[in-house]
Amino acid sequence: MHEHDNEYKQLLLNNTKWVEEKLSADPDYFKLLSKGQNPPFLYIGCSDSRLPIDVFTGANPGQIFIHRNVANQVFLNDMNLLTVLEFAIKTLKVKHVIICGHYDCGGIQAAYNGTDLNLVENWTMNVRDIAMEYKKELDAIENINDRINRLSELNVIRQLRQLCKTSIMHEAFKQNNYPQLHGWVLDIAHGKIIELELPVAEWKDYGLLPENYL
Ligand code: CO
């Protein structure tokens, strides 16, 4: 027997128990779930194991369509993300798009401090650009952890701006007055979600958001 067998088996035991609980509360629960999805939210977050967003928000299966990668990056040539985005916007017609970063993010730390993982370094190169762009503001924050946490916030706003550049979003905004955009950071040490203010007026000025965006 492998030394990690128990923690692995526990997952499947938990699943069996959870199914039983759900069925005893509602015998049709999975029958209804299997009929299809109509989630109002698209969530783009970090891969970090500490932040399953449905647990933190009390959301149920079927409510949140999810894409995750290291440090919640939006690259305009990332077929994985673009495919998720297109499906969420065009087919599921989600009403909200949330990009969520978090404090104590390893990806953001790697971008700021450097790392010996080459691919992480490549992947987070845009975060380093943000750090260079906001050097003055960041340098004024004495505590290094606070500084990196601020970089997490700036990163969320930057990735939302990236999202606004996609043709998928442009088309959606032309046709509807949704989706609404939201920037979150999860403060892991307190479990709290912090809503970030977005520079909506500035994005409108540059044509990233339509004039009638609320
Ligand atoms: Co992270």
What does this structure look like?
With 214 residues, the protein is α/β, with parallel strands linked by helices. The protein folds into 2 domains: 1-35; 37-206, 3-Layer(aba) Sandwich (Beta-carbonic Anhydrase, Chain A), CATH 3.40.1050.10. 50% of the residues lie in helices and 15% in strands. The longest helix has 21 residues, at 5-25. The model has no long low-confidence stretch (mean pLDDT 95). Bound molecules: cobalt (II) ion (CO).
Fold topology:
Layout: H1 5-25, H2 29-33, E1 41-46, H3 53-57, E2 64-69, H4 79-91, E3 96-102, H5 106-113, H6 118-123, H7 125-133, H8 135-139, H9 144-164, H10 167-175, E4 180-187, E5 192-196, H11 200-205
Parallel strand pairs: 1-2, 1-3, 3-4
Antiparallel strand pairs: 4-5
The structure holds cobalt (II) ion.
Cobalt (II) ion binds next to helix 5.
